[in-house]
Design goal:
single chain, 3-stranded antiparallel sheet, globular
């Protein structure tokens, strides 16, 4: 019986998605090395990928339904970790208190992992509903589940990480049958409240000057100081432009990142480094790899054996698409710099580990698509 189960698992295992994810991560190591060849970020990333792959296979070969059944417990642990970040146990970096210091591992960012736990909690709640249309009460409960971690993350404060949670809730609402009038109402409310909140925030000082400048760097680039808050965007655009069609082929003596002109080249602006080193061809190839991997995931969502599994996959897909869109937009200078990492490319143990765990859940759902 065990042998039959193992054969079935191996036969149904999504090897293509796995290979694509690993290929993107390895490509990311190369770009991290190109960005900071004299630093050890790329070596740490290799260790991170090794740990992430172990976690990925453990999650993949575990029945996701058992984990979803325990989602409230995991979700509660996640909220507790976010609360710990706000205590003296939290570690601060770049003005944000978003990490916990752990022995051996070093800094650990709970908000990356709580994102997955929030997905599981929302999937458990919405996956158990019988009706095809969401009620207002169900929307309130789902919003409360979503608000728990987001409010704590905003207190760190880490607005960039908090924003990455919104596509998850949007996917859950849309796929659970939100009424069109609520969608229209939300769009109208956002169109009114966002500009109003912006004006109030600027006048009251709640929106910091650097945050205002990052928005203005996109809306009106000539209005910001190119050596001040507009520096990140301007240098990123220059770096992307230097790549041309086929890239600079690793000419470190003229590299924007190696010469320290481009800030955070190994993390926030890894796409700009990729553009500089591999050019238009490399960037398009990377985006095609993402597209193929995401299309495989969506196909798995259509074949999922239950609603909860479908919701898990699609919320993860929406989250990944949003992060890719935001990071590439930052690098191209069409979106504000808010510190959203490029999945499997940006350096960081927490980010690479949480992404592979999320993909592990996708593979777990796909492996059990024929199981009742």
């Amino acid at each position: 019986m065990v042998a039959i189960l193992e054969k079935r698992d191996l036969r149904d295992f999504d090897w293509l998605t796995t290979v694509l994810a690993i290929a993107i991560a390895v490509f990311g190591v190369w770009q991290i090395h190109n960005a900071q060849p004299t630093e050890n970020f790329w070596i740490k990333q290799i260790y991170g990928i090794g740990i992430a792959l172990v976690a990925f296979f453990v999650v993949s070969f575990t029945d996701y339904r058992r984990i979803i059944d325990s989602a409230p417990v995991f979700y509660g642990i996640g909220l507790f970790l976010l609360l710990l970040v706000l205590t003296p146990l939290g570690a601060e970096s770049h003005g944000q208190k978003a990490w916990l210091k752990l022995p051996i591992v070093g800094q650990f960012q709970p908000s990356e992992f709580v994102k997955i736990l929030t997905v599981l909690m929302l999937a458990k709640y919405f996956g158990s509903k019988k009706a095809n249309v969401l009620t207002f009460k169900e929307m309130l409960v789902g919003g409360a589940i979503f608000a728990g971690p987001v409010v704590l993350i905003l207190l760190e404060p880490d607005a960039g990480q908090a924003i990455t949670y919104f596509p998850i809730l949007a996917a859950m609402f849309f796929l659970s049958g939100i009424k069109i009038r609520y969608v229209v109402l939300a769009i109208v409310a956002a169109a009114i409240m966002i500009p109003a909140a912006w004006m109030v925030g600027v006048k009251t000082g709640k929106i910091k000057r650097y945050q205002e400048e990052r928005i203005l760097a996109i809306i009106d680039p000539d209005s910001v100081d190119p050596k001040g808050f507009g520096y990140h965007t301007i240098q990123s655009v220059i770096t992307v432009g230097k790549g041309g069609i086929a890239g600079s082929q690793g000419e470190s003596e003229v590299s924007q990142s190696v010469l320290k002109f481009l800030p955070e080249p190994h993390s926030d602006f890894i796409f700009a480094v990729t553009a500089e080193n591999t050019g238009f061809i490399g960037c398009v190839s990377l985006l095609l790899a993402y597209a193929l991997m995401l299309s495989r995931m969506i196909a798995g969502a259509r074949e999922a054996s239950d609603r909860a599994g479908m919701l898990v996959i699609m919320s993860i897909v929406c989250g990944l698409v949003f992060q890719i869109f935001m990071n590439v937009g930052m690098a191209l200078g069409v979106l504000p710099v808010i510190g959203v990492p490029l999945p499997m490319m940006s350096a960081g143990l927490s980010a690479i580990l949480s992404t592979f765990v999320a993909i592990g859940f996708v593979v777990s759902v796909k492996m059990r698509r024929f199981v009742n």
